[in-house]
Amino acid sequence: MLDVSIRLGVLNLLRDLKERLHLAILYITHDIASARYFADTTLVMYAGRIVEGGDSEGVTQHPAHPYTQLLIASAPDPDRIVADEEQDETGTGEPPSLITPPAGCRFHPRCPQAMERCRTELPPRFDLPDGQWAACWLYDGAAANGTAPGADRAAVKEATR
């Protein structure tokens, strides 16, 4: 991994080339902060499936899919440092086998908000406000607490705690 200043220089160079030469660039990373900085659009993949997508600012500031929420929460943030005993233990467990993935949503074994439906049915893409979308049953009108697609994500997160 490159140090921060070199990484920033490379991203600035790529951005300049993209704009000057009208290029499309596919940037693959686990670093959600650099994706937000560099990309116009962000797609989030878990176990070989795209689970969320949209404008980079929207996806990183208002993550909809539980995996995206945990991915962002796992990034170092000095404002969010908590004592070890206070750390949230959600999202633990082993990643799924990509050879024999679990039925339904591939994230359900590690998802803190998984419902029975998540274990058996692969969720479709649900459109959310501002062009964002998530492949998560939380955004189906029949999901927990009757939350409709496109509903306020904070309300969905709170309702499913």
What is the strand and helix layout of this fold?
Elements: H1 4-21, H2 32-38, E1 41-46, E2 49-55, H3 56-61, H4 66-74, H5 116-120, E3 126-127, E4 133-134, H6 153-159
Antiparallel strand pairs: 1-2, 2-4, 3-4
Report on this structure.
By secondary structure, this protein is α+β, with helices and mostly antiparallel strands. The protein has a single domain, classed as Rossmann fold. The protein is 32% helix and 11% strand. Strands 1-2-4-3 form a four-stranded antiparallel β-sheet. A hairpin with a 5-residue loop joins strand 3 (126-127) and strand 4 (133-134). The longest helix is centred in the first third of the chain and has 18 residues, at 4-21. The model is unreliable at 142-153 and 155-161 (pLDDT under 50).
- The CATH superfamily turns out to be P-loop containing nucleotide triphosphate hydrolases
Largest sheet: 4 strands, antiparallel
Please compute the radius of gyration using only Cα atoms. Answer: 17 Å
Biggest sheet, strands in spatial order?
1-2-4-3
Shape: globular
Report the portion of residues in β strands: 5-15%
Count of distinct structural domains = 1
- Broad structural category: alpha+beta
State the end-to-end distance.
Answer: 36 Å
How many DSSP H or I helices? 6
Mean pLDDT value: 82
- According to CATH, what is the class? Alpha Beta
Low-confidence stretches: 142-153, 155-161
Indicate the CATH architecture: 3-Layer(aba) Sandwich
Number of strands: 4
SSE pattern, N- to C-terminal: HHEEHHHEEH
Q: What name does CATH use for the topology?
A: Rossmann fold
